[in-house]
Amino acid sequence: MHIHYLQHVPFEGIGSIQDWADRGGHTVSRTRLYAGDQFPAIDRFDLLVVMGGPMNIYEYSEYPWLKVEKGYIKQVIEADKAVLGVCLGAQLIADVLGGPVVDGREKEIGWFDIKRSAEVADHPLALFLDDQCEVFHWHGDTFNIPPGAIHLASSGVCDNQGFIYNDRVVALQFHLETTAESAAALIENCAGELAEGGAHIQSGAEMMADGARYAAINQRMNRLLDAMAATLN
């Protein structure tokens, strides 16, 4: 299987997804939007991963490639490809499917629980989650669930933490790919957001205190990727 990912900033890569690919003998390539890389032909990959970033999906003047990226994501989905979106990536997918992206009630940064939606309890692409589990968050915006999509999960301050579309597309507002190293990069490069403070904004020290948490979410990502890969067979 070949995985291609869309990267929006140098400090936010695919984290543990690379480890999963390496163990399974899968190949990986990327488009660095910030560097002006071109998009590959859609038939060149099996799974598209759309990663996160600190920008808003409507900041076209500062990031003109966002419009082109949205068009590309739409083409990939219409081609019935497997697509995984993480944080900003999930918001981009929601937008192209008709689910508006809006400001969240408050920023959610750090380790907080989510609850899986009852309607996906038996869905093969939702079994990577328990009914309630802890995941890593770093977002301020949120999305509405697009028409035809199935609601995946919610948290105390964010009703829409993910969705599944057409049994091929999974969008996660939260992070499961984050490693201790990638979290440290986020803390270093997005320190201004932590300085804002808030009931659901943890300190860098709190986020880095327990390395076992990263291993736990990475295992959930492995289970999701296994399930998505199974849909390609």
UniProtKB/TrEMBL annotation:
Do you know which InterPro entries this protein is assigned to? Answer: ChyE-like (IPR044992), Class_I_gatase-like (IPR029062), GATASE (IPR017926)
A GO molecular function annotation here is: transferase activity
Question: Which PROSITE patterns does the entry mention?
Answer: GATASE_TYPE_1 (PS51273)
**Where in this chain does the record put each Glutamine amidotransferase domain?**
43-189
Establish whether keyword Transferase is in the entry.
Answer: yes
What are the entry keywords? Transferase
One GO term describing the cellular component: cytosol
Which Gene3D superfamilies does its entry note?
3.40.50.880
The protein here is known as Amidotransferase
Q: Which organism is it from?
A: Solemya pervernicosa gill symbiont
- What lineage does UniProt assign to this protein's organism? Bacteria, Pseudomonadati, Pseudomonadota, Gammaproteobacteria, sulfur-oxidizing symbionts
